[in-house]
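seq:
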Amino acid sequence: MPSAGDSAKFALARAHAHKPLLAAALLTVLLTTAVLATLTAYSTAIGDASLRHALAAPRDAADTTLVVKAETVPAASRTAADTAVREGTRKAFDGLPVTLRTLVRSGPYALPGSLRPPDERAKTDEPDLTHFAALDRTQVRIAEGRMPAEATGAEIEAALPETAARALALEPGARLTLDNRLDGPPATIRITGLYRPVDTAAPYWRLDDLNGRGIVKGHFTTYGPLLADPTLFTGD
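struct:
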């Protein structure tokens, strides 16, 4: 029975006898490793280039949306806040093509209880809510009436989502008084038109708490937003 030392000598002897074969095998391993490393680097470079190319072509790129919310930003601070978000976005996406959109909205307002169907008025003491927003007008289409103009007096012009108008039985020309839920003064509004989103699947509508649907039911039922002239938020 051969000993362990004999086995080692035998293996070494066989290896010594096949040095050219071992050298060829080692060279094959080295070449294979080098090729795989090169292919990995090439694949990474191609993948990065393909990603950048895809993101540069809106038709081919999948949408990735980063939503940044800031509550109660004074008008005087909005430029600085906008600059900070743009700079942060530039760093986060590292030079990739990015479109930045902004949606400025008000705090909540209570709708008149008289807009509720009679059988629902006794169910809860909580009012239905709405809010104003300076929507991007390229993202909406007026279905009836017209876009709101700049407020020149105490009355605020606003457009209402078509879906909300149907549920509330409101038409252009309707006047409402909304109670401010944040202890501010009430708002008197006149509905100038009804609108619908051009495309509710567009990334823009992720900025809207109602996602472009016009109505969201939860603890409160919220209708809107009320599309208002941007000057309502700037005080100009």
